[in-house]
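Form 7-S
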Amino acid sequence: MKKYFYILGGLQALTAIGAIPAGYGYLSDITGKNMGVSTDLLMNSPLDSFLLPGLFLLIVNGFANAAGAYLSFTRNRFAGHSGIILGLLLSIWILIQVYWISLTSFLQPLFLVIGLVNIYLSWRILRGVS
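Output:
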């Protein structure tokens, strides 16, 4: 059982490490130019800047996953619940992203898999299955 907590925490930490600088980058320039993209990427979405994606990346995929990693590494009783929520949010985030801007990077399917693995590991933790 212990291994599920550590694998979940590692995936959450990896997500946070990627999302925090990306979120900050989009928030520091909501046009996306500093991140090497253009708002043209958003033309099929309801968004006209990278403000909301930047906030979501920083707060949910970044800081919340860092907190989730802490819960997982400390084997807190809420680690499974937070893991399911964060895994669902990450998976939905990626699915919406691909729907609106299409598949543009290998990171999209990678993080979709990470989100789904988070859900699975969290479910195993909640069930107490070793």
